[in-house]
């Protein structure tokens, strides 16, 4: 349906209607004390834009950020809150926010006031004039500074930037930026190819674009966070590695399966350690050692998968226990399949190592698929 046709079908209530030109998506997790100030600043700097909207995408923050946003939105219809329950993830939050608007220009900005919102009108102007498909707020462009960052954080950020640039061939001074604006057509052309994992949506967009995007960078100084805590942790680094893997293999190897397998390998080490302790050190019967080791290793795998592999759907409270039960059950059946396949192959004179590996592979795939469907179901 064209805009013209839509007007005929749904005549505007009040004439003349000013079409929404810009949507600013703000991802939040525990930003209650920042969001009000950000919305105020956004409104102030966007006075020149005839019609804009702001979509705050909140992942059910325990500090009730969503309720705070809705309270503000009561007097400001251009502010909306998209609250996601049982989900986590900065990139996916931004993607879903951008999918929830009809605006032709889409921006993403952090809620913690670290990005310089006064850049937005200039970003919009560049898109309006058709000088770029995507405008990035860059921390490393010549005049950009990062005050308040310790050396470690700076080096880490530098390293990730270099790695991203090298591996994916992206030529941009700050491909890790979380502050950018792009045209809807550019977003729609790429949205189905995005990994949507972790923090680095911009990089994801840049490397997934079917045709190279015309990119402009605007420098700004990254402000220190005054209130609340950063959500960047080791898991974010894992997410980053997974996204790179996803992009480099063209999505061939599911990122979650890789993590699941790595966790499984770590579980094997745990298993052997417990077995060694119970059987060799304590001198208990082998069966007791093997049983204890299996239970401990399964629980270890479950806990680690819950924190890492399925971090975005992490189970908590009594659902954690419930998930543990399903996991142990699924992996128990997986172990049977493993032994069954290995025994069958071995009986058919397949070399023992090959039989064993085939059994392990079948068990691993079974465990992955079944737990994905029944333990960490969406
Ligand atoms: N909805 C949602 N879900 N929002 C999230 C989540 C999540 O799981 N995790 C973080 N956020 C929100 C935060 O509330 C904040 O508004 C924004 O995303 C950035 O998170 P920070 O925790 O402040 O990250 P940072 O400052 O270390 O890094 C950010 O800024 C860098 C510089 O622009 C990120 O945006 C990086 O991607 C970016 O490179
Ligand atoms: Mn921040």
Your description of this structure?
There is one protein chain. 53% of the residues lie in helices and 10% in strands. It is α/β, with parallel strands linked by helices and 378 residues long. The protein has 2 domains: 19-248, Spore Coat Polysaccharide Biosynthesis Protein SpsA, Chain A (Alpha-Beta Complex), CATH 3.90.550.10; 255-374. It has a 7-stranded mixed beta sheet. Strand 2 (52-58), helix 3 (65-73) and strand 3 form a beta-alpha-beta unit. It is elongated. 35% of the residues are buried. Guanosine-5'-diphosphate-alpha-D-mannose is lined by residues 27-29, 31, 57-59, 88-90, 93, 110-112, 114, 176-179, 199-200, 230-232. Manganese (II) ion is lined by residues 110, 112, 114, 225, 230.
